[in-house]
Amino acid sequence: MRSACHAEKPAIRSEATDVPLKKLRVATAFTRRICVSIQPAHASRTTSNGRYSLDDRPLGDVVREAQNNSDESDWFSDMDESARDTVNGPNGSDPPKRLRVSVGAFGLAILAGGFLFTGRAYRLSYYAHLHLNGSVFPDDAQARSFDAVIAWGDVVTSLISLISRTVARHHLGMVLGPTLGLLLFVVTLAVIRDAPRWTIWRKVSPAGKRRRMTGLIALLRGPGRMVLAFLRWIAPPKEKFRLVERFYQAMLGLYGAYVFLVLVGLVFVALVLPFQHAGEDAASRDAKDGFSGQPDVALVLDGKAASSFKLVECGADFCALFGGGHAITVPKDQIKLAVSAPPGDAPKAVAAAKDHTVSRASSD
Fold this sequence. Notes:
This protein has 11 helices and 5 strands; from the N terminus they run ααααααααααβββββα. The protein is of the alpha+beta class. A hairpin with a 2-residue loop joins strand 3 and strand 4 (326-331). The relative contact order is 0.07. Residues 6-19, 36-55 and 71-90 have low confidence and may be disordered.
């Protein structure tokens, strides 16, 4: 009688049984590794030709001994290429690795979309604070990326400033509060741990301790039964309340969907509100400063030079101007000249813009 270690390798080469052959090769390689890994420590179990016999041993003992004496990498290295394809997939690829790559790419796409979304929220809130229509201004990936970088910088700066002001205003409470809370927590744990060691508890006899514990259990038995009955009512057994169980499962599904929608809404709120406030604050600062860093432009209406304005932003067909404490939107072809001047020479720039605009209007 020949053992499993002495079995010959199957010589089947049929194309129709390619997949079963791969599995058979894996099993054959694993069996061969089991036979090699077993150390012939007992002479009584070694045959005359030096090969280790398994005829007198249960197969479970053989497998357990092989698992103790070898690991997966040993027998896996004995497989041929087709057998490895059965375990790892075609071309030696690793399905978990491919899954991680796919999940990582999907996560990066979600993060990139959220990043651009924060930039757009920042810019729209900036326009809304100035009562401008944001749809007439550029909205592409480059503009959103630039706005997102500015928005994240403003949000982080505002957060750091808020933390600094809070610490400066309530530094004593912020330091003492967590410290006292942690100390109280440690003392409570110590009291609970050392409660059985108290002298007053030691003086109570074991019978008295049992009576007190029995009384406590009896005191809690009534509320415990009420809680248990309530739990049985909201979660009845399957064999008795099929209809109630299905209704309960449907309600759980609805609650799960509701919780999911709430979480999605909270994510959107977290992505919108901070950057919306950052855009409004930036627009408020620029309006209070009069857009001093922007070029000066002058418009001609009905042949007369109008007041000077600051150029806020231009789109494909319209430009946003600021002057006199308010913002206006004019067609782009009415902007004939925009003059930028160093700090201190702004009046000269305004005069130059007006002169040039009036001369262009009279010549036309």
